[in-house]
UniProtKB/TrEMBL annotation:
Annotated residues for binding of substrate: K92, Q113, K116, G167, S381
Assembly, per entry: Homohexamer.
SUPFAM superfamilies assigned to the protein according to its UniProt record, in alphabetical order: Aminoacid dehydrogenase-like, N-terminal domain, NAD(P)-binding Rossmann-fold domains
GO cellular component, one term: cytosol
Keyword terms of this UniProt record: NAD, Nucleotide-binding, Oxidoreductase
Species in which this protein is naturally found: Vescimonas coprocola
Keyword Oxidoreductase: yes
The encoding gene: gdhA
UniProt-annotated catalytic positions: K128
Chain residues that bind NAD(+): T212, N244
Protein name as it appears in the record: Glutamate dehydrogenase
Transmembrane residue ranges: none
PROSITE patterns: GLFV_DEHYDROGENASE
Record flagged with keyword Membrane: no
Site (Important for catalysis): D168
Length: 449
């Protein structure tokens, strides 16, 4: 419940303008509820209409993407780029290719990206983009033709000092390569810093694939250490998803001594009481692009369940949701609490509903929100931009050490903010306030525009 009349008005005006954008409304309301703790001490925000500007993108670009499939038929998809806030640096955020992509989802992701990028301490603004194109089931040539058409329009709106896209769901190394090739072809210039997530042969960074999953575990480990005097050593960890984030979260959790017991995809979940064999998962998901159910056929003693939410009924010590938004509702959160979890850290973007977060808090579960916990990916994207600017390539260990320190700094920054504003240990409020303050100060300093 928003107490500030100012924030109530900001939110009601926003909801009235775009009544159908439910995901975006959810993200904004969560942040405004945190800012309720500090807004009265900053009358200058209202005088400058700062919140009204903060919740409205600086620019939204929408365009058609025509492409030819392998039969010679012309297909048409929608493309978008939401350039949300550039107060502290060029717009920075991924491209998502998935049938569910719409403006509400991209605005929610771009809005979250503002705060996430702010928390990294790197000079990056917030943005997001993508298309309702589905790469699954498409040939390499079809994906290439789509990416080339998409970039033919997008290149007008991006640049290494303007807007720097990266990958997201449906956009991996293959897609980034095709996008970068088309950008270079049209611009006749090797602007390495215009896209991140590139291949190592043309300016990519070591540790980029691992970054989000590794960073998630680094922050979780620090949260457990500082708030519970615990660690991941010997803990049972439930992970949802089996994409890039989930796979490398599993890898790092195992390196830190945890036993990962679940993973999932859209068709179901697997439970392995002996601990997930990551080599098998990598073979299925990364090499063969198969389905997670194959794991149960290959590993004796494991089991497959056709409802992916069933994995949250498995007792665990630490939960790491790494699949998609709103996968954990109130009932699912109650299962996690009943299963004895001491902590949940979000690897996906906004995987927990507001009702679920409340259940977790009441159940005494430590909660690390996505804008802090999964910031490792964009942090290493920022480090890739640094390397491109300096014409350098750091080693895996150099990037990993920088990533580790960034994630430790994020935890302590958001924890300290929670203490400062009277909600010690509420890392959601701490993340929203800490991320917002830096952007707000920059917006005020730059005047109204």
């Amino acid at each position: 419940m928003l107490k500030s009349i100012y924030l109530q008005q900001v939110y009601s005006d926003l909801a009235a303008r775009d009544p159908e954008q439910k995901e975006f409304h959810q993200a904004v309301r969560e942040v405004l509820e945190s800012l309720d703790l500090m807004i009265d001490s900053h009358p200058e925000y209202r005088e400058a209409a700062l919140l009204e500007r903060f919740v409205e993108p600086e620019r939204v670009v929408a365009f058609r993407v025509p492409w030819m499939d392998d039969t010679g038929r012309i297909r048409v998809n929608r493309g978008y780029r939401v350039q949300f806030n550039s107060a502290i640096g060029p717009y920075k955020g991924g491209l998502r290719f998935h049938p569910s992509v719409n403006l509400s989802i991209l605005k929610f992701l771009g809005f979250e990206q503002i705060l996430k990028n702010s928390l990294t301490g790197l000079p990056m603004g917030g943005g997001k983009g993508g298309s309702d194109f589905d790469p699954k089931g498409k040939s390499d040539r079809e994906v290439m033709r789509f990416c080339q058409s998409f970039m033919t329009e997008l290149q007008r709106h991006i640049g290494q000092f303007v807007d720097v896209p990266a990958g997201d769901i449906g956009v991996g190394g293959r897609e980034i390569g095709y996008l970068f090739g088309q950008y270079k072809r049209i611009r006749d210039s090797f602007d390495g810093g215009v896209l991140t997530g590139k291949g190592l042969s043309f300016g990519g960074s070591l540790t980029r694939n691992e970054a989000t999953g590794y960073g998630l575990c680094y922050l979780t480990e620090e949260m457990l250490h500082c708030m519970k005097q615990e660690s991941l050593q010997g803990k049972r960890v439930a992970i949802s998803g089996s994409g890039n984030v989930a796979i490398f979260a599993c890898q790092k959790a195992q390196e830190l001594g945890a036993k990962v017991i679940t993973m999932s995809d859209s068709n179901g979940c697997i439970y392995d009481p002996e601990g997930i064999r990551l080599d098998v998962v990598k073979d299925i998901k990364l090499r063969r692009r198969g389905r997670i159910r194959e794991y149960a056929q290959l590993v004796p003693g494991s089991e497959f369940r056709s409802d992916f939410r069933d994995l949250w009924s498995v007792p665990c010590d630490v939960a790491l949701p790494c699949a998609t938004q709103n996968e954990i509702d109130a009932e699912t959160a109650r299962r996690i609490v009943r299963g004895g979890a001491m902590a949940l850290a979000e690897g996906a973007n906004m995987p927990s509903t507001p009702a679920a977060i409340e259940v977790l808090r009441e159940g005494g579960v430590l909660f690390a929100p996505a804008k802090a916990a999964n910031a490792g990916g964009v942090a290493v994207s920022g480090l890739e931009m640094c390397q491109n600017s300096m014409r350098l390539a750091w080693t895996f260990d150099e990037v990993d050490q920088r990533l580790h320190q960034i994630m430790l700094d994020i935890f302590h920054n958001i924890y300290d903010a929670s203490v400062e504003y009277g909600v010690p240990g509420n890392l959601l409020d701490g993340a929203n306030i800490a991320g917002f303050r830096k952007v707000a100060d920059a917006m005020l300093a730059q005047g109204v525009c």
